[in-house]
């Protein structure tokens, strides 16, 4: 009986050690998961920033083009246009 109890205590100790190792591994995994989440958030924020910069750049380019077209149209409107006189209506 005493031998059985010793063997059961030894098995229990082994189980506790295994449980402790599992708990340490779980903590390491949780820590790694937090690090991974942080890295992913950091990458997403970096990509978001690049996308917003590109959008701002394109918006500025489009505004510039619109101003250019508007200016050109305004200049064209301000020019007085004299249509050509047909040949048969010309005076000699």
Structure description:
The protein is mostly helical and 92 residues long. 84% of the residues lie in helices and 0% in strands. It is built from one helix and no strands. The mean pLDDT is 89.
Give a brief rundown of this model.
It is built from one helix and no strands. By secondary structure, it is an all-alpha fold.
Largest sheet: none
Separation of the first and last Cα atoms: 140 Å
SSE string, helices as H and strands as E: H
Strand content: under 5%
Give the beta-strand count.
Answer: 0
Number of helices: 1
Task: State the helicity in percent bands.
Answer: over 70%
Structural class per helix/strand content?
mainly alpha
Runs in which pLDDT lies below 50 for 5 or more consecutive residues are none
Radius of gyration: 40 Å
Give descriptors for this structure.
mainly alpha; rod-shaped; 1 helix; 92 residues
Provide the fold topology.
Elements: H1 2-78
């Amino acid at each position: 009986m005493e031998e059985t109890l010793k063997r059961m205590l030894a098995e229990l100790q082994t189980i506790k050690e295994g449980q402790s190792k599992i708990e340490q591994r779980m903590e390491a995994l949780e820590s790694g998961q937090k690090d991974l989440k942080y890295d992913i958030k950091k990458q997403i924020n970096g990509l978001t920033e690049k996308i917003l910069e590109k959008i701002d750049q394109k918006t500025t380019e489009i505004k510039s083009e619109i101003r250019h077209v508007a200016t050109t149209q305004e200049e064209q409107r301000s020019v007085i246009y004299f249509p050509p006189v047909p040949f048969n209506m010309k005076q000699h």
